[in-house]
Amino acid sequence: xxxxxxxxxxxxRRWSPTANPRNQERMAPNITSTPTxxxxxxxxxxxxxxxxxxxxxxxxxxxxxSIVWKNVLIFSYLHLGALYGLYLVxxxxxxxxxxxxxxxxxxxxxxxxxxxxxxxxHRSYKAKWQLRLILMIFNTxxxxxxxxxxxxxxxxxxxxxxxxxxxxxxxxxxxxxxVGWLLCRKHPDVKEKGKGxxxxxxxxxxxxxxxxxxxxxxMPLFCFILPTxxxxxxxxxxxxxxYFVAAILRYVFTLNMTWLVNSAAHLFGGKPYDRFxxxxxxxxxxxxxxxxxxxxxxxxxxxxYKTAELGNYKYNTTTAFIDFFAKIGWAYEMKSxxxxxxxxxxxxxGDGTHELWGWGDKDQPSEERExxxxxxxxxxx
Length: 381
Prior knowledge:
The radius of gyration is 28 Å and the shape is globular. The chain is about 60% helix and about 5% strand. It has helices spanning about 20-25, 40-60, 70-90, 95-120, 130-140, 145-160, 175-180, 190-195, 200-205, 205-215, 215-235, 240-260, 285-290, 295-300, 315-325, 340-350, 365-380; strands at about 10, 15, 30-35, 35-40, 125, 330. A two-stranded antiparallel ribbon has the order 1-2. It has a two-stranded antiparallel ribbon with strand order 3-4. The protein has a two-stranded antiparallel sheet with strand order 5-6.
């Protein structure tokens, strides 16, 4: 620094107090004092950013699986209670109670599949307020978190599938993908990536915001209290049978059917649409989870409201449910995928098991299948 010239020289940076005031305002650096000297504004920001990134990296490096024992105890109690409820089904519960529990399972399943999943997480169709209200109630009975939070986690799952940012990363094993992810602390990547998910479309829905605001009151009422009270007062069921069959058994069964989509449908089954990803076609999961088991198709075309190519109602109750409400005008603008688009994808990346556009002969050597895929891919390029 030269006192006489009034010019400050810091390396390659120069600033003169005799320059044009506007230029001074524009060009003058924001100088920050530190114990080690002086930093310009951009250098300070860079240092802060580097420090934040370092902290994130340290957190990732130091991440170790930490069990949440409270959740372990809660889920252990629920599953033991469900086993007792299953025992009561065959020993003392009335047939009406068992039927009521099954009906609730169907309703709560639709609250997840037609509501939280296909409508709110993927926006694969639109629904009028009457249908959204029904699905919100069904979703609350299901007790798998408020629909907004469920949709956030599911959007993260699709965007970062099978990575550390995936809440139920199937590469960490069947048990983790099924229930283990709820028994331990989230990986830092899940929290970090979850903050970047846009939920403005869901937060603009007053029905969803009402559910989230009053969830701690609505959930116990719809999920446990009413399913217990109704059998007792409507057909004189015992409190024990009503609670353990219609509430606990039904709730735990629905949970496990949903979890199978995260575990079994990500590990077992054919991959006719994309053999390079984990999600697979699993007929058993499709049947038990109301049509959510056609998972290889769903991860390739997540915007299709059917979550399956042909929408067979036999293994896709949710599609039948949406189509019914479409007929009465409560569901509309259902999105689907053009047949030619599906065919091209099957031929380009499928594993050859597609019933229409596969190679047909199941005994065809894998080398020939691989050669066919490479040849076809080369032609498209």
